Amino acid sequence: xxxxxxxxxxxxxxxxxxxxxxxxxxxxxxxxxxxxxxxxxxxxxxxxxxxxxxxxxxxxxxxxxxxxxxxxxxxxxxxxxxxxxxxxxxxxxxxxxxxxxxxxxxxxxxxxxxxxxxxxxxxxxxxxxxxxxxxxxxxxxxxxxxxxxxxxxxxxxxxxxxxxxxxxxxxxxxxxxxxxxxxxxxxxxxxxxxxxxxxxxxxxxxxxxxxxxxxxxxxxxxxxxxxxxxxxxxxxxxxxxxxxxxxxxxxxxxxxxxxxxxxxxxxxxxxxxxxxxxxxxx
Length: 282
What we know:
Helix content is 31%, strand content 27%. The chain is of the alpha/beta class.
């Protein structure tokens, strides 16, 4: 606890105000290690060594909390983990090197810490509006978990994987919010949680590949028509100008037809290119 003494000497008051406004004070991280449970208030925490949530116990962090991990440290959950952040106050699990200004440290890298491991004895896992960054395996979940809820969970710059369920890695894009199940998911016996996760993570991205292939093909075909029939129109125009009276009408009709096909090709090319470009922003 920080104790503040009151100054009775008025000559010291200006100096106190000068120091208060000229030198920002960085709050110390609250250090954690070993067995942990309970609800932790909004703060910045530093995990020096593995923290473990024992079977039957529950660990929660308040919205806006930042939990930084030293190298080789991680969070092992044998009981319950309930961390519900907010849109403007996510809960962040990250590297000890991931710090903002004025103490900014740009050395945060993948593999900086272990990650969050949910063991087979865990009961209820609920993560909402949280971020996991710069770890080795991100979030590793046993496929025997019965109560699992992931809502708007964001991963970035994790080393081996973002999310693993059982022995399988779920394909999730960095910085793309991922959700699995309702707020409290209780799969029936035999439910394939991994399949559900894969389907959920790919809903927003499965259309990209076929859309890009189709639009790319349209741009290629349109471009070919545009270039080919433009050259043909120029050639026919030259024949038209040199043709006699009896052949002029035939060359004019051929030229006009080539121009129409060229214009259609140009429109298809432009649509394909524009559509392909739009897909890059999703």
